[in-house]
């Protein structure tokens, strides 16, 4: 009597020193017996390979497949492990795929075991499962300048958090305590299709507040800085603070604008960020509560597509202490973000907004990806994402880009 042939699902896990042609040799054996590969994944850490293959075959040839794989593993001097998978277990696993997936990005000057352990502990506590981990930054040399150093890994997790708000709070607390940025994003089509990015200017694209620089030249630096800091913390209305500060600049020679522009301290990572953003086709905009003179200067230097800021009134070569047109405040920034999305025919969920102050929160809250950059505590607490450990090019990792793809 012929033995009944049944379907078998088998997982093989291979580990050992990486050698050219290893994956080809193993999958060739499966091909010879007509096996169907259900899933495959491979990682390489310091020339050590870890390969997993899940395949379907039939009971009449499964023994021969395992025997040939064992011989090939011996020949290649690698370790191989076989695990049979029950059909109902496999079907349940398939049913879970593609549902409620998230991406967690860990970013800092360097990543330690303590930081990774703390993050994965929160993931586990929320009932989520880590499907994959990949490094986005290049391999780190043992000796490297601290300012240039950056390290980033990305985790793909599956499941529904038991309490997403609490999870986000734990991540914020970890960020503050352990000096790491942690981003939690839904793994959806919009994350992979960002098309418009809008930046605040002062203390975001440049490492200063231009109005403070002008105030120093006008001899009222201390008074203006105090109002600026209060406004950025959200303690006073932006429009009121702006009007009060600009009035103190009355009589300042307009030639000072060029001198300040030529000496602006550019934020770390801006050159690299703009190079990559233009290469991958994102539209870029400056939406600033600062001044158009400096926004236009940055536009010429870095190729921004749009600039919206405040216009200083100048008469007889002197600042009048007044402005022209409407103030670009927090509400106006959000309106401009929506307008640019319409102009570029972009879904609002495909947009990114980046800023540091309380007046940036409206646009951060409506963008598909809102990033508080080196922001005040109040802003970080109210933004969905924050970046505080490295420069602006850290945004590229929030988009899932790898150093090996963009440098």
Strand elements, count: 15
Quickly give the structural class: alpha/beta
The value of Rg in angstroms is: 27 Å
Task: Count up the helices.
Answer: 16
The proportion of strand residues reads 25-35%
| Helical content class | 25-40%
Q: The biggest beta sheet, please? A: 7 strands, mixed
Q: Could you name the ranges where pLDDT drops below 50 across 5 or more consecutive residues?
A: none
State the strand order across the main sheet: 12-11-10-9-13-14-15
Question: What is the average per-residue confidence, as pLDDT, rounded to a whole number?
Answer: 91
User: What is the straight-line distance between the termini?
Assistant: 64 Å
Approximate shape: elongated
Write a structural description.
It is built from 16 helices and 15 strands. The model has no long low-confidence stretch (mean pLDDT 91). It is an alpha/beta fold. Helix 1 (22-32) packs antiparallel against helix 2 (59-76) and helix 6 (210-218) runs antiparallel to helix 7. The longest helix has 18 residues, at 59-76. The protein has a seven-stranded mixed beta sheet. A four-stranded antiparallel beta sheet has the order 2-3-1-4. Helix 14 (377-382) links the parallel strand 14 (369-373) and strand 15 (385-387).
